[in-house]
Amino acid sequence: xxxxxxxxxxxxxxxxxxxxxxxxxxxxxxxxxxxxxxxxxxxxxxxxxxxxxxxxxxxxxxxxxxxxxxxxxxxxxxxxxxxxxxxxxxxxxxxxxxxxxxxxxxxxxxxxxxxxxxxxxxxxxxxxxxxxxxxxxxxxxxxxxxxxxxxxxxxxxxxxxxxxxxxxxxxxxxxxxxxxxxxxxxxxxxxxxxxxxxxxxxxxxxxxxxxxxxxxxxxxxxxxxxxxxxxxxxxxxxxxxxxxxxxxxxxxxxxxxxxxxxxxxxxxxxx
Length: 271
Ligand code: ADP
Fold this sequence. Notes:
There is one protein chain. The protein is α/β, with parallel strands linked by helices. Helix content is about 40%, strand content about 25%. A hairpin with a 2-residue loop joins strand 11 and strand 12. The chain binds adenosine-5'-diphosphate (ADP). The site of adenosine-5'-diphosphate has 10 residues, from helix 2. Its main location: membrane. It is found in: Cell membrane.
């Protein structure tokens, strides 16, 4: 084995976490001829906050879309809390999972996108109670109590009766975060949630995410171009480059003393 291969193997070993909440094992994804993720290994511990950074097109969104079951890996396996997402093991063989199984595992995952897509004709409260009532089947009183609690948490306790059009973009995005939290997911995915906001509204949304992160319990995977935010919030930062994890580690290492020229040049854009 060459020194480089040994180093790569060592890095892989370091990444293995016991009882991870999320585990990508040897995951590749191609669209037609184009490989966008190449043998991804990634373990995430319960409660961990992970930031994915990297140039546009490096594969970040594909990583989380697969976890949300919006894309299927071309090869490899993904586990959430010990359960395989896309496969089931039957008599020692991996077979494709059925829709029921996918739905069950997907129930552990919440996602907030760039576009918040609230229902315009429903109040803020109703926006937050529809899914818990219809998808989780919890009763209306409990859904309302949970929704109010989460809206308080994102600083919008006084807006329950407002309609989305009466709120600013930052407030709407905070509702989208509350709506996701109401489902009590084990893992929260945030995909560039501030990218579509006016600059003056970015701070309030990042603050809300930091508050939620401080509660500790929820595992978070954040795709962000807000490097200072990643540094504040993340336990580990992963730099994606051309469908591979090119560098990863604690934010104070990866973001302050990047090893590779690619990462140095990527980060220099933000200064
Ligand atoms: P990032 O989030 O880092 O910008 P993405 O995961 O969105 O990167 O995309 C990685 C690559 O995969 C890009 O080259 C993109 O064009 C390609 N890609 C993503 N989704 C599809 C798709 N549904 N069909 C074809 N190509 C796709």
